[in-house]
Amino acid sequence: MEAGAPRSGIAGSLTRRALAWPRANPAQAAGGLLLAAMLALAIAYGIQPLAQRTINGVVSGSYFALGAVGLTLVYGTLKLVNFAHGDMLTFGAYVAFLFNVTIGLPIVVAALCAIAVTAALGVASDRVMWRPMRAKRAGLLQLLLMAIGLAFVIRNAIQLVAGTAPRRLDVDVTTSIAFLGLRIGRTELIAVVVGLATLAGVVLMLRHTLLGKQMRALSDNFDLAEVTGIDTDRIVVATWVFAAGLAGLAGVLLVASIGSMTINIGFFVLLSLFAAVILGGIGNAYGALVGGMVIGLAQEWSTLVLDARWKVAVGFAILIAVLVVRPSGIFGRERTL
Amino acid sequence: MTTFAFTLEAFTDIDFWIGVGILAGTYTIFALGLQINVGFTGIVNFGQAGFMAIGAYTMGILVVKAGWSFWLALPAATAVAMAAGLLIGLPSLRLRADYFAIVTIAFAEIVRYVAQNARELTGGNQGLLGYDDAWADVSFWILDRLDAIGMGDQFLLPLLLVTWITALVLIAVLSVVQRTPWGRVLRAIREDEDAARALGKNTFAYKLQSLMIGAALGALAGYFLALNLAFVSPESFEPLFTFIGYAVLILGGLASYAGVALGAIVLWTLLEATRFLDLPLAAEKVAALRFMLVGLLLILLMAYRPQGILGKRREMVLGD
User: For the residues of A93-160, what is the DSSP string, one character each?
Assistant: First the structure.
């Protein structure tokens, strides 16, 4: 719709046309970019090292995706940028620690407890804080700062109880499985299988169940969804159960794969989750799943080129790059932001 | 409730008040930057700790690694912080407020990562020290003068005085600037950016300028922090400190420069007083309590009194 630039000629129209295609097909363009990066890395560093990084990337991508889908749904449904979401991951991990190590239950039971308790925390935060604030029609700054405040309360409440010493879940972190010259930790493998299976379940649920459709409808346009007769209050609660429960699971998988936890772990991950959410188009659940995977892969691939200590910064760099190039993300509709 | 007993002697101790005073002065300057951004322009800068880090580290690196004079390093580091504000503002100030908040907090985290990992330059987690010789000379000169009134044995008093003189001068200058046409445009952007643009104002340029001034104030606070601690390390620039700045800002009141000073004094008195709570807890747990307090304060203020102590409700237009 933009007025044609006076600078015309073949070169000008070519660049315009070259820029028009990725603008119209952002998902394909991003996929192409990813493929190109993969090819370049395979040529420069060899297939085997790249494949190893890809495995690592899928492991972290699966818990990023689990964390990101909840963050994006809460944003889409309630227009709340939940800065406390990262600390919900931490919370889930420490609840699992409580049941798994302190009480001594098997890790599977502990993980289920973590999901349930974190989901309850999510619903409680809505009843105590977010619902009253919605009723007050609170402004953006109020909500942002309350979310930050909640993050501090959760994180420091954990520190108050558990202290700052690193903790480990009672899982096997030494055994690894080797195949084709690649290796993956046994626990990592379990984590990635659980993660991917849950993600598949999430996609099926969002796509085919009434609840999933209603959640996406609310995330897309709250008022319109309400007019069509959806019980929005029920869906809001369901969204919190879903978002916080997945955050709890993501926290457990994160800690099980990397081996240890500290109270800052969720906040560190949060910015990668934001990167995933914005890359996928904020409010778009499928976008967040893909975005999480892409961020996981990009961070692990970057260790071929850069020292591993920079890999978290790669997530931030992607975040800023996406906001500069296409703030609506690869699956979002282009609109004024 | 003997476990919650206070040892009140702490409050009659001059060292306590000098310590609180320096922190409050530093955070007054820090939050003045947030005030011009959030309170007067309506841009939600969540990266103030990053600008503070850039100021403190640039100054330290220029003095320690490049052998610059401290007095030359100060304006240079301020310029670097402003350039960082420009760099981060150019691509992101056009975005919605919540996106801008995410970008700025990500920026501040990148800065902290670099400080942590570029060890040759920053000393990593060990930190950077040895930049304050020039300040020590000034400090001793002031102590000599203080000796005349019998206060020469308070080694941190000169820093307290200089911090607060700076903070008060800044409050005065910013309050005057706010009444100029330039300051009124900032307010207009906060109230209704489209209307300001329709009146022919280049609102983007004004927002950039506001962010750059905020960054400069963050850097300035960074110098006082660096002089107070005598070394700079990444943990002084965690996002937490940006939000301590927000607690100061909201406590004092949005759109009030004097309120910032009040907020800083109240908050830091409160935070430092928790050190004297006679709790049977390890130090890390007492620290956790203090930061829970910051979180709770933010939640309660935002829920019940978003305009703060001195702020005006009608100036609170950070709605959707």
Answer: HHHHHIIIIIS---HHHHHHHHHHHHHHHHHHHIIIIIHHHHHTT--HHHHHHHHHHHHHHHHHHHHH
Q: Alpha carbon A316 to chain centroid distance?
A: 13
A176 forms beta bridges with: A185
Q: What is the pTM of this model?
A: 0.88
- Strand, coil or helix: A185: strand
- pLDDT tens-digit series, residues A126-142: 999 999 998 888 888 88
Structural domain boundaries of chain A?
43-325
Using a CB-CB cut-off of 8 Å, the residues of chain A touching B117 are 307, 309-310
Chain B residues in contact with A337 (beta carbon < 8 A): 94-96, 99
Check: CB of residue B248 under 8 Å from CB of residue B260.
yes
Measured distance CA(A125)–CA(A147) in Å, rounded: 10
What tens digit of pLDDT does each residue of A223-257 get? 888 888 888 888 899 989 999 999 999 999 999 88
Residue B152 to chain A, least CA–CA distance (Å): 40
- Amino acid at site B108: A
Tell me the domain boundaries of chain B. Answer: 2-315
Q: Which three-class secondary structure state does DSSP give residue B277? A: strand
- The topology under which CATH files domain B2-315 is ABC transporter involved in vitamin B12 uptake, BtuC (1.10.3470)
Distance from CA of A37 to the nearest CA of B (A): 23
DSSP state of B276: G
CATH, domain A43-325, list 2.60.120, 2.40.160, 1.10.3470, 1.10.8: 1.10.3470
Torsion of CA A154, A155, A158, A163, to 10 degrees: -160
